[in-house]
Fold this sequence. Notes:
mainly beta
Amino acid sequence: ANGEFWSDLFVGGTFNPYIVERVFDIHQMENGDLLLGGAITTDTLQLGIFRGLARLHEDGSHDTSLPVIDITPNNGGGAIRRIFPAPDGGWYVSGGFTALNGHESNHVAKLTADFTVDTDFVSPFMYDGPVTYQENIILVDEQSRCWVTCYQIPFLENPNESIQNQRY
């Protein structure tokens, strides 16, 4: 519109209010808002700090009330890659991270309904780097079990043994 070719969410765009290093998943909420999972900078004064989630309102404006989800590692390689609603109103996320907001939970974590990190949930997976094969949730069933797939998933309790698919 009006000769503007840059998206509001584009790396390096002249009129860009946010820097999006990567968006891997988008979940449309019941109220029309969009959850973006990835490596996203939402503070123009701190361009090197990436968040795992951002929420856009139905009108496209950035929701600044969403709690900050800091990803570790925080270098653009770490990111939330998948977002799934949990039957209890919370959220499961997966991707290239060792921790969210300092809570260690390799590659898979749980958020509460208000998007704070559920520290009771701990991933059984080993961290094998932010850019190698990722453990990705492909389904959360009605019993709140996560179905995860990856190429050679290593487990914390037995790192020398790996599998392709896991339900827990």
